[in-house]
Amino acid sequence: MRTFQVLGITLTDYSVREAMRKVEEYLKDGKVSTICYITTGGILEAENHPETKSFLENMNLTVAADAEFLKAADILTRGRQREIENSDFMRIFLNRVARDRLKVCLISDSQDAADKLEQGLKSYQGGLQVIGRFTAIDAESEETETLINDINVLAPEIIISNLSYPLREAFFEQHHMKLHAEVWLILNNNMVIESRSLSLLERMKKGLTRKALARSVDQYRKDQLKSDTKEIDTDAVNKAIEGENPQK
Asked: CA–CA separation, 210 vs 105, rounded Å?
């Protein structure tokens, strides 16, 4: 386990083995625990949206969807890179869910998004027991309150969502304590979760996002350095003034 910061966002990175130990604890503690996959694009979004930053920092467990922001934090080992590139946590987690026949409910922005989510999950583990698929449109609507009640009636052990910003953040803020489940796995709506090689277009998008992150991290570090230097200069001036005007 390593705690690190990227673009001012504090996160904790766990190996797959450590993360699965946490999952086993979550399945026994009797309350909903949140696991969020974080993408490089998600980190960039959080830089500009305080509510996303707060959302990510309030997760019980975060899982890296790609290795780029761990590289930016200078904590990436070869073993962790392999785990991330091979989607080991997703595979092992879904295998655990299917093996014990844990009931799963899905929450998406639309039926099309729910179709893609279920297809992607089942490309990893075809034995998933999906007992409900729900669409959330507005976190504050009466329909959403009904949705929460309908999910709780089904009593799933696992909830998996791929809601988009800002619905994801608002839905979590207002409803995560109301859900009667053991684990809520939260995915980015743009995250490719199918067990397959990335297409050329997907690799190109990933490359552009990687470059954007590198630029943002470089600029953030420069701004922090300027801020630190300014504070040091101010302290020096204040001390000089105090030296010239000692209190009697």
From this structure: 32
Length of the chain: 248
Q: Closest Cα to residue 53, out of 38, 68, 67, 65?
A: 38
How far apart CA 240 and CA 141 sit, in angstroms, is 60
For 104, 171, 181, 192, 246, the CA distances from 161, given in Å and listed in that order, are: 10, 11, 13, 13, 63
In angstroms, rounded to a whole number, what is the distance separating the alpha carbons of residues 210 and 115?
28
pLDDT single digits (tens) 26-44: 999 989 999 999 888 878 7
The pTM score is 0.80
Contact between 136 and 163 under an 8 Å Cβ cutoff? The reply is: yes
Look up residue 201 and give its two tokens. Answer: 């277009």
Q: Which two tokens stand for residue 181?
A: 């489940």
User: Are 4 and 13 contacting, i.e. CB atoms less than 8 angstroms apart?
Assistant: yes
DSSP assignment string, 115-165: HHHHHHHHHH-TT-EEEEEEE---TTSHHHHHHHHHHHHH--SEEEE-PPT
Omega before 166 cis (within 30°)? yes
Q: What is the pLDDT of residues 51-104, one digit of tens each?
A: 998 999 899 999 988 887 777 777 778 888 889 888 999 999 999 999 999 999
DSSP 85-117: HTTHHHHHHHHHHHHTT-EEEEEESSHHHHHHH
**Which one-letter amino acid corresponds to residue 8?**
G
